[in-house]
Amino acid sequence: MPEPIIFYDIAGGKFPWSPNTWNTRYALNIKGLPYRTEFREYPDIEPTCKEIGAAPTGTWSDGRPQYTFPVIHDPNTKLTISDSDNIIEYLEKQYPDTPSLVPKGSLGLILAFRPGFGNILGDRIYNLVVLATNQYLNPRSEEYFRRTRESSLKKKLEDIVPGGLSSGSEGSEKAWKAAQAGFDTLASWYDKNEEGKGLYLLGDSVTYADILVAGRLIWVRVVLGEKSKEWERFKSLNGGKWEKILNNFEKYHTVV
Ligand SMILES: N[C@@H](CCC(=O)N[C@@H](CS)C(=O)NCC(=O)O)C(=O)O
């Protein structure tokens, strides 16, 4: 049995919420690899990455390197890896005897699906849940998240969906309609598979493509709240398809 992998996730609320770090938790849980989670507040992501030698994953608009979670440190190989795409590639190669999340020859296609999916839904999901995400965070992260996101969006978080998601305002209906249109496109891709009979994008087995989708779905559910009227509305999209996928992922929601 390998030594537990150290998985770095963003703190906040009672249950992990971050879509990108869920990509990694899902992969670790499905593969059944031993790991433990280190939760850090947003302002501590960069110092932690520097301390453990995790490479930046992008560049801020002012040119500074951008450090992000998820990151894993694998004591078995002494490697530290940032970015959920790099992490999946590493886990697939390093632990070939665990369930594969990337069918042979499909890695490039799944990595191309990510920006494709991002283009049709990234901003639309973000708009729906950015305020709820901010409210879900602990005070230090809340302050950091609001400051950095308002500076890049050049808006108050409250002004992204004026009146709030359940207000019925013109802005909120526009946000819901935009999300619906994006999810309709995603559903049409899923439905191409065996005329909609296969639950997942590539058939009956979960792949990293479905993890990318499920990571967004669990984020929405966690920050809106499973009992909220906003989640009720969300889960009715596309005949409940997204809730069904998330229900199938329930067994991978273990947090260690
Ligand atoms: N491409 C990266 C994106 C990760 C990412 O954007 N993480 C965000 C949280 S969801 C983050 O750590 N942001 C750090 C910050 O805003 O300072 C991945 O897939 O791992």
Written account of the structure:
This protein is α+β, with helices and mostly antiparallel strands and 256 residues long. It folds into 2 domains: 5-94, Glutaredoxin (3-Layer(aba) Sandwich); 107-252, Glutathione S-transferase Yfyf (Class Pi), Chain A, domain 2, CATH 1.20.1050.10. Helix content is 52%, strand content 9%. Strands 2-1-5-6 form a 4-stranded mixed sheet, sandwiched between helices. A hairpin with a 4-residue loop joins strand 5 and strand 6. The longest helix is centred in the middle third of the chain and has 30 residues, at 107-136. The structure holds glutathione (GSH). Glutathione binds next to helix 1 and helix 3.
> What coarse outline follows from CA principal-axis ratios?
globular
Side-by-side strand order of the widest sheet = 2-1-5-6
Structural class: alpha+beta
Structural domain tally: 2
Query: What separation lies between the terminal Cα atoms?
Result: 17 Å
C-alpha-based Rg, rounded: 18 Å
Instruction: Give average pLDDT, whole number.
Output: 95
Compressed to H and E, one letter per element, the order equals EHEHEEEEHHHHHHH
CATH architecture of the largest domain: Up-down Bundle
